[in-house]
Amino acid sequence: MTATAGIEKLKGTWEYVDGEHFDDYMKEIGVGFALRQSAKLIKPKLIIKENDGKWILKSESTLKSATYEFVPGVEFDETRLDGENVKSVITFEKDKWFHTMRDKSGKESTIARWVDAQGQQQIVC
């Protein structure tokens, strides 16, 4: 799966700016109240890299860090930051990156990422 120019813009280091609606998303996927409250205080730094078709997404914070390596379009095992094990696949469609996770009960959730006209990474859950 070839990355478009819009996907290429996602590469780099991104500082957390705003988490509007993130609590709603965490609630929807079953994250408990106490962990959601803690997550509101975290301002992770995201690092996105690619090397020969293998992508790396690294989330760093003072509380917890995680690194995921993936090939676009290929399912992989992921442990979310809340400890839940899920099956994930990341695909690129036009200038957007879609990260779909499926939990053990089969429930799916998708996160979309892209870079807007102002050069800011947007994430919609």
TrEMBL record:
One of its GO terms (molecular function) is lipid binding. Gene3D superfamilies: 2.40.128.20. It holds the Pfam family Lipocalin. InterPro entries: Calycin, Fatty_acid-bd, ILBP, Lipocln_cytosolic_FA-bd_dom. Residues 12-115 form the Lipocalin/cytosolic fatty-acid binding domain. SUPFAM superfamilies: Lipocalins. Keywords: Lipid-binding. Belongs to the calycin superfamily. Fatty-acid binding protein (FABP) family. PANTHER family: FATTY ACID BINDING PROTEIN. This is Lipocalin/cytosolic fatty-acid binding domain-containing protein. It comes from Rotaria magnacalcarata.
